Amino acid sequence: MRRRKARTAPDELAPSPERFAQGVVERLPQAIADEAGRPVRPYRAVDTLTAMLRKGSITPEMRQAGEDFHALFMTAQLETLRAADLGRLPDGMREMNITLRQAEARKQVWRILKTLGGVPSPAGSCAWHVIGSAMTVKEWALHHGWNGRVLSPEAASGVLIGALGALQAHFGL
Fold this sequence. Notes:
Order of helices and strands: HEEEEHHHHHH
Number of helices: 7
Low-confidence stretches: none
Number of strands: 4
Mean pLDDT: 79
Strand order of the largest sheet: 1-4
Largest sheet: 2 strands, antiparallel
Distance between the termini: 46 Å
């Protein structure tokens, strides 16, 4: 038997098939306001921590610890997004100094990673790539792994769960 695709209303804009191929996408359960204040129910990607919480492999406190670390990581601006071409900026604006808030967030991230054993350790590498940079566990296991070794998805999930447990203890949740 073939599965039928979920149908959307004709006036509804759904994600493209290419987006659905990138991972799980779902509608928000409740409506939110768009830029003009109209109620809408947009789609969102389901992240790794949410999927693990739904499966029961992590606790809500572990998920919160992961969200807290991710928020610090984003505040510190350590994500691997590509930067804009600085050649387009005027000469006086080419130096991008970090703010005091970013500097403090970076200190906290490094302190946490040191607690996890450093970036080269399995928990530190997993925290950096999966929790901080929002890479999937499978991508991290195949491309980064630990110490240059490819990990099985089960072992990678175990490393992530251990890292989240350590983060939970660090944040006192």
